[in-house]
Amino acid sequence: MALDLLVSVLAAAAWAGAGAAAAARRPRTAAALMAGAMVASLARAGSVLALAGAGWWFVQEKVTVALPLLLTASVVAAVTAGPRLLAASRATSAAGRDAVGSPAVVVPLLGAGYAAAAGPVQTFLLGYPAEPGSALILLAVVAGAVLVTWRAMAPRVPLLRAATAATVAAALAGGVLTFLPATTAGATTPGAALGAATPEAATAGAATPEAATAGAATPGGGVLGDGAPAAAAPAADAPAEGGHDMPGHAASAQTSAQMSAPGRPVTDFRGPSEPAPGGTVRRFTLTARTATVTLSSGRKVAAWTFDGQVPGPPITATQGDLVEVRLRNADITEGVTLHWHGYDVPSGEDGVPGLTQEAVRPGGEFVYRFLAAQTGTYWYHTHEVSDIGVRMGLYGMFVVAPRGSATTGVDLTLPVHTFAGTTVAGDHDQPILQGVAPGTPVRLRLVDTDNTPHRFTLAGTVYRLVAVDGTDLSGPGPLSRAGLRLPAGGRYDLAFTMPSGPVVLRADDRTEVVRLTATANGTGHVSGTDAPGPQHTDRSDQSGNATDVTDAGDAAAAAGWPELDLTRYGTPAPTPYTSRSRFDRRFTLVLDRGLALGDGLPIYAHTINGRAYPHVPTQVVREGDLVRLTVVNRGRDTHPWHLHGHRVLVLARDGRAPTGSPLWLDTFDVRPGEVWEVAFRAGNPGLWMNHCHNLSHADLGMMLHLAYEGVTTPFHGGHGG
């Protein structure tokens, strides 16, 4: 993608330079630049061809609009201006050389420059997909620039009024088509229930990913991917609606009607009232309030908190327990909820305001209740205005231990967050210091609560990455001198036996998070069942030598350690489905940036298939469906993708299947140019968010809904902030 951008810019610059040199009556310079421009234009065709190997998603607008426009303008410039430039270059008289400055030479050269520049403009401003509306806008802009240039150079332009009228009409038509709300294109009848589509319709024409994207790219079409046309499954292509964590997103009338149609309300999907046999009831109360929090250095920061602390109180349970959490709001005017990140709670407990509940306003409360069925490391956070709320501190840790597991060793939960540019672990903006007896089992639970990934390194010991996103890996091998990239919202569990020397955990190759020092008696242990966050960890130097970490390496050395490829780590194990399974539903999400309709106005959005929330069509499934999801990143930003209520199994990244342990994830980083293919079983009925967990991206439109057929919501649209 970078090479394609480079040759696009070079072509535009060369054509514009040729036009400027011709206008300055420098024919030889203009001829040389035109030759370079033609080479760059042909190189652009080659770069597009090479990029097409990564998938149609990456070249669709280039092949259908930008490249034909560039090549056509280049041919016109070469045919009309080329002979005159060559003649002027050989001319011996001043009059002969001056002829090169005529509009017949300059305008075609500059026109080719405008056409070349239109390619990057289309990619970065209009984005994916190239629809008729955006194509008309682009053509109108290029034509308008040519007309203005021609009129500036010539006292009289033939058919100027007609050409101007046609250009304006094309621009207006393009604007209407581009920003036409999804609710007016391919709309279903307002009384239709969500998900009237059949599995057969959902997979119709699913021969290639290219077909899937082409189907989703049509105006009014949706993300019912892999070739399913909008007409084949109108209800599944209905636009998303309801609330989320971001302020000001009004629901569309169409999907409001659909989600309010007769069916089973999402409020019916709540947790049980009793624990599993052998379990107990774990009750917690969290009160959201503003507070001033003191970090370990003594620095004070204004925060939004649960119970006056950041992170909030740890919630711990044992598998089979019933978790009951009463959320109260003291003074967060924007409202709060609790979302259990990565945990497959019933839909009514998921904490999405405007979709599964109303936000809890000051003075209000809401009780969450669910069975602790999954073991591992998770976290909770607000989902109302969450881009602000999570950044300000409305999050905490949630750890579930296996029933009957031993609680020996040191178990540290380390939520890494950024406050005003400072990386903190828990409430520590200085390294956490702890003495540990050699031979002691140690488990470090790393949690990224930021919007962006963190890179972790562990120096001074050999260790294993034993769990990702709460799920144990198969056959995790020993690691050392490796960089661990943790996506926003993701979790890694590291395990090792304390050596006789110091162990240092760093974030982003520069920030020391934890220093463990070998001591004769250690500091005891922090158990997995009642593990407090690091804010409760003893930071004292019990060994008297905590600053001597030479055996653990230094930051400069760790910065050069190669990044671990999770798809190659561990050993294979059986999975309930593979890439060769028969899928009932296939969806393709193409992530990009571009102008899109937000809340009634065009915004420069983070888009999904060319649309921004709330105009991204809802994904509709039936309970029991096996669903294949392809996520394509055409943009320049990394997008940590997070589906609520379901774990996904990684099938492939960039066309390569994992060769190590099966990867069951709830958040996965889709980097620029990457294509991820994942699958999940639709076994948790309800209404769910499916969004980028860089919450600022979600705020700018990168989110949609996953809905089970027949599930409705009484909550509509408006959400605070």
Automatic annotation (TrEMBL):
Keyword hit for Cell membrane: no
Residues that span the membrane, as ranges: 6-24, 31-59, 65-87, 99-121, 133-152, 159-180
Domain spans labelled Plastocyanin-like: 289-403, 609-707
SUPFAM superfamilies on file: Cupredoxins
Source organism per UniProt: Microbispora cellulosiformans
Entry GO MF terms: copper ion binding; oxidoreductase activity
Protein name per Swiss-Prot or TrEMBL: Multicopper oxidase family protein
Keyword Transferase: no
